Structure formats: C-alpha cells, structure tokens
Amino acid sequence: MDFSEFGRHAEYVVAAYSMAAVVVAGLILWIRSDKSRLEKEMQALEASGIRRRSSRRAATEKNQVNSTSPDEKSGT
Amino acid sequence: MTLYDLANPTRFLKLVKAVLPWLVVATVAALAVGLYFAFFASPEDYQQGQTVRIMFVHVPAAQLAMMCYVMMALSSVGSLVWKHPLADVSAKASAPIGAAFTFLALFSGAVWGKPMWGAFWVWDARLTSFLVLLIMYLGIIALWKAIEDPIKAAKVNAIITLVGVINVVIIKFSVEWWNTLHQPASIIRSGGPSIHSSILIPLASMAIAFVLLFLTLHLMSMRNEIMRRRIRAMRMRAASIAPAASSSTVTKAAPAGVR
Description:
The complex is a heterodimer of chains A (76) and B (259). With 76 residues, chain A is mostly helical. Chain A has three helices and no strands. Chain B has helices spanning 3-6, 9-40, 52-82, 85-117, 125-146, 150-177, 197-253. Chain B: InterPro entries: Cyt_c_assembly, Cyt_c_biogenesis_CcmC, Cyt_c_biogenesis_CcsA/CcmC.
C-alpha cells in the first residue's frame, strides 16, 4: 500500500503502527533474552552439582531401581 | 487432564511446550489477516478518514490492557484463596505485558487524538483512568521487584491488584458516568455494535490477533518465571547445604579438645 494515500494524516498512522511494532518486538526480545539468561544460569548451577529437589529425588529413585538385584526385581 | 493437574508447574511446562508452537503460528496468521483487513480490505471512515486505521491498533491494545488486568485479578484470587504458586506466576507474568499494551493504547490514542481532537492529550475521564492503569501496572511491577520473598510479594500484590479492579470498572463506565470527549462504547454495548461491518471486521480480526499474542507472551513469560523460581530454590538449597558442609569440615579439622 502506498503511504501517500493516507493523505495529511499519514505520519499519525505510521507512528501508531511503528510504536505497536516496537512494543511487540520489545516484549518478544525481552522475554526471549530473559529465557536464555535463565537457561544459562540454570545450566551453570547444574554444572556445579546443584540439583532441584525433585530431580534429586528422581535420580535417587532411579539409582535404587538400578541397584535392585534381578532376584529382588522378580520378587524371588 | 483436569484443571487441578495443570496447577502443577511441571505438567504446566509440558503443556506450554506442546501448545506454544501452535499458538505462535496462530498469532502470526491472525496478525497477518488482521493487518490485511486493516490496510487493504477496509475503507476510510467518512469522518475520521485514514486515521480510522489507528483504531485497529488502539482498540485491541486498550481491550488487552484491561483484559490483562482482569487476568491479574483472577490470578490474585487464586493466590489468596488457594495459595497456589502458579497463580502467583500468572499474576507476575501478566504485569509487564499489561503495562506495555496500556502504553500502546495511550500512545495510539494520542496520535489519533491530535488530528481528530486537535490535542494529543486531554484530562478526560477515560484517558485519565487509563493513565492511572499504567501507573498501577508500573507500581505492581516495582512491588514485585522490591519484595525478595516471592510468596510475600504475591500476597501483597494480590491485595493491591484486587483493590485496583475498581479502576477497570471506572475505565469501562467512565464514558457513561461523566461527560467525556472520548466516544462511548461502540462494540460491547446493549443493542450490539454500532460500527459498520466494513470497520468492525478488521477491528475484530486485530482484536483476535492481539488476544492470541497476549496468550503467547503470557505463556512464554510464565515459563520464564517458573524457571526463575526454580533457580532461586536451587540457590537457597546450595546456600543451606554450604554452611553445614563447611561446619562439618571445621569440626573434623579441629583438635579433640575443641570439639
């Protein structure tokens, strides 16, 4: 669409849509950059051996299952 | 899967992972359709001329600004009544999105007001109450940042948010209660919309696109907030383990008489 068709009020229409684009793009970029920062932070914590309580519990349960002998597993 | 199951953050994150790509596609498609209607398939208004196209951004942004506050208020009820952390997460994630769309509604209203009213701003009841909404959003964001304990912050913010619902009611009925320059309700009103379908269809298309955009951004933001809380919990666990570990080391290293 040719913006000259907007006549004497073109700058107002362009300003409104430009600001909408800036606000939406800004929100998306902010949320995405926040996500990547948090992911890096969590990876750094996990790398240093710190685990979430639920993941530690899951790991313990997994180890218990693995350490159970075949006889115990079969119930004999 | 019941609503109660969804209240579990891990299950919620799984759902977000599955839903988000589809929601992004739907949002982009709806925005494309909305912008097509806004620029190519709608006539200029007989009074407003081409500036009517500003309404296709202004009205959905304003509706979303209020919807976002209602979402925050409902989440606050969830926080206070059921004390569920996911409700806190929802309330916190809504605030910056609501503030952004309130700002956009005020800005687009101002650039529409200049050619139509001859002024960017008037101290009209609708405009002023909307400015109050922006200030409330900024205050709530500041309060979330000011209180370190998320549970305490959620409680304080929930009470303030629920008190602030009165402003949403004032915004909605300001054009009826007071003599304002802002036009009265023309979409959600008794007797149906007073807008011609050639303008109503682009407006509705953009409104649907904005709602989808809000859902997408809200889910993305909630996912971040859940991750932030998990990191905080991990740091607290690490901090609680560290002194215990260091004290046991000191005990082992100390001479027998000191023990």
